[in-house]
Specification:
About 10% of the residues have low confidence. Helix 6 packs parallel to helix 17 and helix 16 runs antiparallel to helix 17. The chain has 17 helices and no strands.
Length: about 375
């Protein structure tokens, strides 16, 4: 097992490098950039995500200093930079690191990221690592509650559907689960706001934030209640579509095990149905379900909450990533990408190791990576 883990860890290095290289290359051709965003602000408007170069291509892809004569009419490579001092443009490029060639900036980024040095945000004047650390608890909170609730409901429901396969209960619960899966989470979130957050009907739940402004003044029980009060609608909106996959995965896994010969043998020995189901079938059937828990959790808090965080004004990683992309805050964008990719690779390894923990008969030592 140690050799398998080592091989997987070593393979993470070229995988991460490939992900970062492809993403970095794509950014070279992305329109707009931090330099042009600053220029737009100086001109009295902020083009944000709609920034465009007059000649195409992004600031990062340009890599060099400002074109001589940038202050002359039509000579600047930045749209809206006419009339600005070329030295000022060059200083902006140096401030953002765009005075170096693209290959040199990429190698410097790889060197810094290897020791988790992500630099500072372009527009927040804060350490990127500090920013991510501040937003992480919000996204982790959403992801943890979503995963726990979805597993707590999906596993018992999937088992019940497998036991009652083909019956009326199985049919109508399948319809409910599929309908819930088909409803987009952001649309359901808006419906919850309209109904329960003062949109048009009842003002029961708060609309913004994860806690109230007077959270620090509350007692321990009050803090727990206030937190659950705020988290209720966002988690409910995120969890609606999460039941389907786990429910049907659990059902199909149990059905597959129930039809095997060892189950028939156990029944012929006179064991009760509950003893057969939970003493013999459960462990084998739950192997594929439980092993996916790490991946489901990381997916939930890294990628499943962007729209929910935006709708409910929750300042988490999802909203930070979206805002950074819009504002061309490249240090935050690449740091998030690097951390997400690294976590994804680690979680894949953990999922494999979970198989061996649940079922020691599985041996990855003889398996080719």
């Amino acid at each position: 097992m140690a050799a398998y883990i080592l091989r997987r860890l070593l393979l993470m290095i070229p995988t991460i490098l490939g992900i970062m290289l492809i993403s970095f290359a794509i950014v070279q051709f992305a329109p707009g950039g931090p330099v042009e965003r600053v220029i737009a602000q100086l001109q009295g408007y902020d083009m944000g995500a709609t920034s465009r170069f007059s000649g195409g291509g992004g600031d990062v892809g340009r890599g060099g200093a400002a074109t001589p004569g940038a202050g002359a009419e039509g000579a600047s490579k930045y749209r809206g930079a006419q009339g600005l001092d070329p030295k000022f443009i060059a200083e902006l490029e140096k401030q953002f690191g765009f005075d170096k060639p693209a290959w040199e900036r990429f190698l410097l980024m790889v060197k810094n990221y290897a020791v988790f040095d992500f630099g500072r945000s372009y527009f927040r004047d804060e350490s990127v690592l500090k920013l991510i650390g501040e937003k992480l608890p919000v996204s982790m909170s959403l992801g943890l509650w979503m995963t726990l609730i979805s597993y707590s409901v999906s596993i018992p429901l999937g088992i019940a559907k497998a036991v009652r396969d083909g019956e009326r209960f199985d049919a109508w619960t399948s319809n409910l689960v599929i309908i819930g899966y088909a409803i987009p989470s952001f649309l359901f979130a808006m419906l919850l706001i309209v109904l329960f957050a003062g949109g048009s009907f009842w003002q029961i739940f708060p609309l913004r934030g994860l806690v109230s402004e007077n959270f620090s003044e509350l007692s321990l029980i009050g803090k727990v209640g206030d937190y659950l009060w705020h988290i209720c609608l966002p988690v409910l909106a995120m969890t609606l579509g999460a039941f389907a996959t786990q429910t049907f995965l659990t059902k199909n896994s149990f059905l597959d095990e129930i039809r095997k010969q060892y189950v028939q043998t156990a029944r012929m020995k006179g064991l009760t149905e509950n003893r057969v189901l939970y003493g013999h079938v459960f462990r084998n059937a739950m192997l594929i379900v439980v092993s996916g828990f790490p991946g489901a959790f990381v997916h939930a808090f890294l990628t499943g909450s962007v729209l929910i965080e935006t709708i409910f004004s929750l300042d988490g990683l999802g909203y930070l990533s979206y805002e950074s992309i819009v504002n061309r805050d490249y240090p935050v964008v690449f740091a998030n990408l690097y951390i997400f990719a690294l976590l994804g690779l680690v979680v894949n390894l953990l999922s494999d190791l979970t198989y061996t923990w649940i079922d020691p008969r599985i041996d990855f030592e003889t398996r080719e990576v």
